[in-house]
Specification:
- It contains 13 helices and 13 strands.
- The longest helix is centred in the last third of the chain and has 22 residues.
- The strands form three sheets. Strands 4-10-9-8-7-5-6 form a seven-stranded mixed sheet, sandwiched between helices. It has a four-stranded mixed sheet with strand order 1-2-3-13. A two-stranded antiparallel ribbon has the order 11-12.
- It is of the alpha/beta class.
- The protein folds into two domains: 167 residues, Aspartate Aminotransferase, domain 1; 252 residues, Aspartate Aminotransferase, domain 2 (3-Layer(aba) Sandwich).
- Bound molecules: pyridoxal-5'-phosphate (PLP).
- Pyridoxal-5'-phosphate binds next to helix 4.
Length: 431
């Protein structure tokens, strides 16, 4: 168990005093395992007491180049020296918009936001303005940030009848529940029946093309594409996680299905507060301020929209990702850890399902296949908690409760250390 210095203990006490749940609202660790990050470099972070961790959390995805990558740091320092924000369209935002559109060529226009939450919220709003309808279909268990709409049926108990939505947060107006329809991921028949029954009320279908760590089954995204195209319902891909991770062109390139709108965030901001909604220009034209007199005009004024420092970090990150062989390397690193985790569990007679893709993955403790949120509920969540805690105690940090985020800076040594930790922890999981 990592030791805590007096300074870190004092800071943890302050965290408990001043932050709800002693947390900034990201990962919340169990008592005894709580720590405060001091710094990160490459694939490692250090807590305030100086304990070192191999980091597979990587800022929850943005840091595909690792912490404090020299090219990103240099670009940011240069940008900081040129001024931090202008509230006027800046050079770097234009260059990043061009780069994003080149990576995801269906998207002719880009509107920047400062979080993935806002990008997904904007995508739903843009679809409503285009379709002149109010309802949005999302998938059970999918996370599209923390707007009132997105927080429907993220973590519902099993058994709610589709397409009934159920809020997964306090403070959401009751009326929102009737504006969202919920479908089961990877179940095209049920989804098709809901779309057929409600197409005339639907403004959009929003999907994480890879939902949390669940890969789409063959034909699922293609089926969604056909169904939505039939009724001219905009299909929104939430690529906040998958964009520039599954491939440079995101899930749309990796799975070969093109949406009408998408949200991007995380990697494209290089670890800084930046995200964007992107899409077909006929839908995105609703953001054009010269159309302010139109009823469909979307007012999306934001103090930090397209912030030049974040855009500089994004441009530097994406330049690194255009280098040859990068995605193959990322998948190789992830594939090794993923395989080792499954193999270790199998050797110890523990049934698991390995889910996701090599660039983002995790396991479920169950002998049954996991293709949807409800399948995942049937898995042993306490065992997953013990795996996470056990690994953390060994100095291996992953996303809680689920996800390994491999990066381009994880070394063979990091992989070996992680695999050795699996060997230590997996045999203890049954207790
Ligand atoms: C798929 C997905 N969409 C949207 C979001 C929200 O992004 P942000 O945390 O930048 O608001 C997240 C955050 O993890 C996400 O995983």
């Amino acid at each position: 168990m990592p030791k805590r210095t007096r300074l870190e203990q004092q800071l943890l006490e302050k965290a408990a005093r001043f932050l709800p749940g002693a947390s900034t609202g990201n990962t919340s660790y169990p008592d005894g395992l709580k720590f405060l990050v001091r710094e990160g470099r490459g694939s490692h972070i250090w807590d305030v007491s100086g304990n070192e961790y191999v980091d597979w959390l990587m800022g929850s995805g943005p840091l595909i180049l690792g912490h404090a990558h020299p090219a990103v740091t240099e670009a940011v320092i240069k940008a900081v020296e040129q001024g931090s924000t202008f509230f006027a369209t800046n050079e770097k935002a234009v260059l990043l918009a061009e780069t994003l559109s080149q990576a995801m060529p269906f998207a002719q226009k880009v509107r920047f936001t400062t979080s993935g939450t806002d990008a997904c919220f904007q995508a739903m709003r843009a679809a409503r303005a285009y379709r002149h309808r109010d309802k949005v279909l999302k998938f059970e268990g999918a996370f599209h940030g923390t707007s009132d709409y997105a927080l429907m049926s993220v973590t519902p108990p099993a058994g709610e009848e589709f397409p009934q939505a159920r809020p997964s947060s306090g403070g959401i107006p009751a009326a929102i529940q009737d504006l969202m329809l919920i479908a089961p991921f990877n179940d095209l028949d049920t989804t098709a029946a809901i779309i057929e029954a409600h197409h005339n009320e639907l403004a959009a279908v929003i999907v994480e093309p890879l939902q949390r760590v669940l890969a789409p089954q063959p034909g699922f995204l293609q089926g969604l594409r056909q169904l939505t195209a039939r009724y001219d319902i905009p299909l929104i891909f939430d690529e906040v996680v998958t964009g520039f991770r599954l491939a440079y062109g995101g899930a749309q390139e990796f799975y070969g299905v093109t949406p009408d709108l998408c949200s991007v965030g995380k990697i494209m901001g290089g670890g800084y507060p930046l995200a964007a909604v992107m899409g077909r220009s006929d839908i995105m034209s609703a953001y054009d301020q010269s159309q302010a007199a139109s009823e469909d005009y979307i007012n999306q004024i934001g103090t930090l929209n397209g912030n030049p420092i974040a855009c500089a970090a994004g441009l530097a990150t994406l330049a690194e990702l255009r280098k040859p062989g990068v995605y193959q390397r990322l998948r190789e690193t992830g594939g090794k850890v993923r395989q080792a985790l499954s193999d270790t569990c199998a050797r110890h007679g523990i049934a698991v399902q390995s889910c996701g893709e090599d660039a983002i993955f995790d396991i479920f403790f169950t002998s049954q296949p996991v293709a949807s949120y409800r399948d995942g509920l049937a898995a042993d969540g306490r065992m997953l908690g013990r795996l996470n805690s056990g690994l953390l105690a060994q100095g291996i940090l992953k996303a809680w409760p689920q996800k390994f985020y491999p990066s381009l800076v994880h070394t063979q040594e990091d992989v070996a250390k992680t695999v050795a930790a699996f060997e230590q922890v997996v045999p203890t999981l049954r207790s």
